[in-house]
Amino acid sequence: MSSPVFLRGDVVELRTLDEDALEFLHEGVNDPGVWVSLGVHGPVHEPESEEWYEEVTSGEDVLQFLVAGDGRPVGSVTAFEVNRSNGHATLGCWIASDEQGNGYGPDATRTLMRYLFDHQRLHTLQATAFAFNDASRRTLERVGFREVGCLPEWVFVDGEYHDTLVYAVTVGDWRAH
After folding, report:
1. Which InterPro entries does this chain map to (predicted)?
2. pTM of the prediction?
């Protein structure tokens, strides 16, 4: 891993993206233990990964990080739709299926939240989780998000429609948490 550490959490490092991370990210979003929870509807091919990388690294409304645990890549955490004038963003995180359960997801999410609230002066963050994804829901609740709504039958995964739960947290609620 050649990308520099941008933020340190309790158990993870958030590193900037570089081309060396593409292979890991490409493998991750094609991992059945990951893509089902992301709602990806087919394989992501390498040219698509490269195009995505160019968009992410050139966009001003996206902050994407490689999550590293014990010196190796374990996932990704992102703030997208960053709206600095209104002070809000949407968060997303995934951890490789063989690395789940080690506390990387909550720590990566919490570390990015701290940066967004303390350094980017954002006020409100939102995130979503599929109703069937108990681990994602627990992670969001553990780091201070609260469920604020439900989009009924919003996503089609594994042959069925599923509800998508909407979560949010304000800087004040987060600090009180």
Report:
1. Acyl_CoA_acyltransferase, GNAT_dom, Ribosomal_N-acetyltransferase
2. 0.88
